[in-house]
Design goal:
Family: Belongs to the bacterial/plant glucose-1-phosphate adenylyltransferase family.
Distance between the termini: 50 Å
Largest sheet: 9 strands, mixed
InterPro entries: ADP-Glc_PPase, GlgDAde_trans, GlmU/GlgC-like_hexapep, NTP_transferase_dom, Nucleotide-diphossugar_trans, Trimer_LpxA-like_sf
CATH class of the largest domain: Alpha Beta
Keywords: Glycogen biosynthesis
CATH architecture of the largest domain: Alpha-Beta Complex
Strand content: 25-35%
Domain Nucleotidyl transferase: 19-231
Helix content: 10-25%
Shape: globular
Domain Glucose-1-phosphate adenylyltransferase/Bifunctional protein GlmU-like C-terminal hexapeptide: 286-357
CATH superfamily of the largest domain: Spore Coat Polysaccharide Biosynthesis Protein SpsA, Chain A
Radius of gyration: 21 Å
Length: 374
C-alpha cells in the first residue's frame, strides 16, 4: 500500500469539447454512469491504493465540485491527520488550450506540498476513467530507480490515430521515455499518457520552483518534457479498461459501453469499489407498463415508459408511452408522456414535454443543456 505517497488531482484540464455540459462545472464534475462524477474514479483509486493525503488543485468554477466532494467522507478522507484538501486557484474561467497555466497554481500551493509528510507524490487528472491499484506502478518506479514514472495505455496504431487532445509518449526497450508529444495533429506514437505521474515529493517541489523561476507555465511541458535528458523518466503500461473522456462523442460512447456487463464489472470492481456522494433516495420504481432493457437506472427514478440501451441518473421520471433509446438522461430529467428520444444526451433538470421527438445519430448525439425545457 502507498502509505508514503500523497495524491494531487490536477483539474487544469481543457474541456473546450464539452462546452454544452461544462458551462456550469469543471471536467472532473461531469456526471458519469448514473450516480458518479469523473473525479470519483481517481479519488477511489487513490484510497484503494492506500493514499490518504489528497490535494485537489482546482481551476475555474469549482462550486459544483466542492458540493460533490464536501469533506471527502465518502472516500474515507475526512480525517484528523492528512485527508482531503481543496487547493485554491487564482485563475478564473474555463481551462483552455493544450498547455494550461497550471504551474502558477502549483506554485501558489507549494506550502501544502512542502509540509506533507509523505516521500512520494502521485499526480493525476480526472479524464482517465479506470479502476487501477497504483502499487504495481510504485514498485516499478522503485525497481527502475526512476526519477519520474508516467503511466500510459498502449493502443494499436489504428486506434492511436483516432485519439484527440492527447499526450503521447515513446519508450525504448527498457521502458525509458525517449519522446513526448502534446496534442499532435498526427499521432506518431501509440502510447497514450494517462496524465498520471509518480515522483518524489522533494523533486516535485524543485521542478516547480525551477520551472516557475524560468518563466514556465505548464507542468507537463516545463517540468517533464524539458527534463527528459536530465532525469530518468520511465513509462509504466496500464493494461486494464480505460475510458478516456476527451469529447462529447467519447463521453457518449463510453457511457454506452458501460452497458456491457464485463466492462461495467471491471471499471467498478477490478481493484476495489468506486465511491461517490451518498444520497438517501428510494430504489427506482417501475410502474405497470414500464419496459426496461439493457440499461442503467439509478435510484430515485420512476419509470412508466420504455427504456432501452440507456443510462438514467438519479430522480429521472419517464412518463407513460415515453420511449428512450441509446440515450443519457442526467439527474432529475423528465421525459413527458409520448415523448421519444434516441441518441440524445440530456444534462441535469432537462424536461422533454409530451409528444416531442428528438433523434440524433450514434456518431453525433444531440446534447441538451442543463435546465432546458423542450
Amino acid at each position: 500500500m502507498l502509505k508514503n505517497t500523497m495524491g494531487i488531482i490536477n483539474l487544469h484540464e481543457s474541456h473546450e469539447s464539452f462546452r454544452e455540459i461544462t458551462k456550469h462545472r469543471p471536467l472532473a464534475a461531469i456526471p458519469f454512469a448514473g450516480r458518479y462524477r469523473l473525479i470519483d474514479f481517481v479519488l477511489s483509486n487513490f484510497i484503494n491504493s492506500g493514499i490518504t493525503n489528497v490535494g485537489i488543485l482546482s481551476a475555474g468554477n469549482s462550486r459544483a465540485l466542492s458540493d460533490h466532494i464536501r469533506s471527502g467522507k465518502e472516500w474515507d478522507l475526512a480525517r484528523k491527520r492528512d485527508g482531503l484538501f481543496l487547493l485554491p486557484s487564482w485563475q478564473t474561467g474555463n481551462v483552455q488550450g493544450a498547455f494550461p497555466n497550471d504551474l502558477a497554481d502549483f506554485f501558489s500551493n507549494l506550502d501544502y506540498i512542502k509540509s506533507s509528510r509523505q516521500r512520494f507524490t502521485l499526480l493525476s487528472g480526472s479524464r482517465a476513467v479506470c479502476n487501477i491499484n497504483y502499487e504495481a506502478a510504485y514498485n516499478y518506479h522503485l525497481a527502475k530507480e526512476a526519477d519520474i514514472t508516467v503511466l500510459y495505455k498502449e493502443y494499436s496504431i489504428a486506434e492511436a490515430k483516432g485519439l484527440s487532445e492527447a499526450t503521447m509518449l515513446e519508450t525504448d526497450s527498457d521502458g525509458r521515455v525517449v519522446d513526448m508529444e502534446v496534442c499532435p495533429v498526427n499521432n506518431r506514437s501509440n502510447k497514450l499518457s494517462l496524465e498520471m505521474v509518480l515522483l518524489e515529493r522533494q523533486l516535485l517541489v524543485d521542478l516547480i520552483d525551477a520551472s516557475v523561476s524560468r518563466g514556465g507555465t505548464n507542468f507537463t511541458r516545463d517540468c517533464i518534457m524539458k527534463n527528459m535528458e536530465n532525469l530518468k523518466i520511465y513509462g509504466f503500461p496500464f493494461t486494464g479498461y480505460l475510458a478516456r473522456i476527451d469529447s462529447m462523442q467519447n463521453y457518449f460512447d463510453h457511457s454506452m459501453k458501460l452497458l456491457t456487463p464485463e466492462i461495467w464489472q471491471e471499471i467498478f470492481f477490478a481493484h476495489g469499489s468506486i465511491y461517490t456522494k451518498v444520497k438517501d433516495e428510494a430504489p427506482a420504481k417501475y410502474q405497470r407498463d414500464a419496459m426496461v432493457k439493457s440499461s442503467l437506472v439509478a435510484n430515485g427514478s420512476v419509470i412508466a415508459g420504455k427504456v432501452e440501451n440507456s443510462v438514467l441518473f438519479r430522480g429521472v421520471k419517464v412518463h407513460k408511452d415515453a420511449r428512450i433509446t441509446n440515450s443519457i438522461v442526467m439527474q432529475k430529467g423528465e421525459i413527458g408522456p409520448g415523448a421519444v428520444i434516441e441518441n440524445v444526451i440530456c444534462d441535469k433538470d432537462v424536461k422533454i414535454t409530451a409528444g416531442k421527438r428528438l433523434k440524433g445519430e450514434l456518431n453525433h448525439p444531440i446534447v441538451i443543456e442543463k435546465g432546458t425545457v423542450i
